[in-house]
Design goal:
mainly alpha, 340 residues, globular, two-stranded antiparallel ribbon, 2 strands, Farnesyl Diphosphate Synthase, 17 helices
């Protein structure tokens, strides 16, 4: 399958692997990225660094900028441009989180109060706009029209994905194609751009640029599919995280789409009541999970993720063996293994 959407997850596992080994390979550069982020969050308007600092501090493990750093190093880059561009990628991501929480009316992110819950919707939207502006300042300062096009195109696609998700929200008629379009835009577009610019700043041949774009896109899709699966998985509960957040918000993700497609009429009525009418009882989440197990939905959702993960692995075949390549491959495996 070529081509099946987020929030960075905390990578927790009893096994070795995950994001930590890849982070270790770019640790010094990542510290430099964090310094640039803090520097460019600064403003004489005190609310801006206060609110932006809250969301950045709660923003997870910097997965997307790490991919920019790793892709650059994979291509043998020795300069410093990738550090500023990695910060740019993180600003784009953080801005979308601020806007997402307002649109979704979310009060919690990673167990912490969201910026909109603390400061209100208007400041959250405006500070999100500020971070987008900072991202574009970093793009322009880089001086490459190609980099500017890649990242600005990704920003536009992400916005389109947000609108598309709004259109399909609470609609059980949403198809797999609709879902993949949203995932490809909202999540995979930034993963893709984050990796592709590593080859661009390294001035590598076009085939390597295409390979890293494919790695990022397919990894991003697999990443989000697993995230959506975990919302209905006991694995999520074992990691001490809440399950059912997407269900309670009426989000139409791949597990829901597959379950609805395989449902009988009584089950379809259940899904419509819970996700379209948003009339839910305390027992509905457990029943939704039971229906998914009954129809083999979670196993098939994981199979979708594995297919995209396989495409991401194949994309790196063009690069010679190296510790960086190995950890980028391990990251794919860890992403999929979260589901088990």
């Amino acid at each position: 399958m070529t081509g099946v959407a987020g929030i960075d997850i905390a990578y927790e596992s009893s096994r070795q692997g995950g994001l930590e080994p890849l982070t270790a390979l770019v640790a010094d550069e990542l510290q430099a990225v964090n310094r640039i982020i803090l520097e460019h969050m600064n403003s004489q308007v005190s609310l801006i660094p206060q609110l932006a600092g809250h969301i950045v501090a709660a923003g997870g493990k910097r997965l997307r900028p790490i991919l920019t750093l790793a892709s650059s190093r994979l291509c043998g880059y020795q300069g410093r441009r990738h550090i500023h561009l990695a910060a740019c990628v993180e600003f784009i991501h953080t801005a979308t989180l601020l806007h997402d929480d307002v649109v979704d009316q979310s009060n919690l992110r990673r167990g912490l109060s969201t910026a909109n819950a603390l400061w209100g919707n208007q400041p959250s939207v405006l500070v999100g706009d500020f971070l987008f502006s900072r991202a574009f300042q970093l793009m322009v300062a880089d001086g490459s029209l190609k980099v500017l096009k890649i990242l600005s195109d990704a920003s536009a696609v992400i916005a389109e994905g947000e609108v598309q998700q709004l259109i399909t929200s609470n609609d059980t008629a949403t198809s797999e194609k609709d879902y993949l379009a949203v995932v490809g835009a909202k999540t995979a577009a930034l993963f893709s751009a984050a990796c592709q610019i590593g080859a661009v700043v390294s001035e590598r041949p076009e085939d390597e640029e295409i390979a890293l774009e494919s790695y990022g896109r397919n990894f991003g899709i697999a990443f989000q599919i697993v995230d959506d699966l975990l919302d209905f998985s006991a694995r999520q509960a074992e990691l001490g995280k809440t399950i059912g957040d997407d269900f309670r918000e009426g989000k139409i993700t791949l597990p829901v789409i597959l379950a609805f497609a395989r449902a009988n009429e009584a089950e379809k009525t259940f899904w419509r009541r819970c996700l379209e009418d948003m009339e839910q009882t305390d027992s509905d989440l457990a029943h939704a999970i039971e229906l998914m197990h009954r129809h083999g939905v979670l196993e098939d959702t994981a199979a979708y993720a594995r297919a995209y993960a396989s495409d991401a692995r194949d994309a790196l075949a063009i690069f010679p063996a190296s510790p960086m390549k190995q950890e980028m491959l391990e990251l794919i495996d860890f992403c999929v293994e979260r589901a088990y």
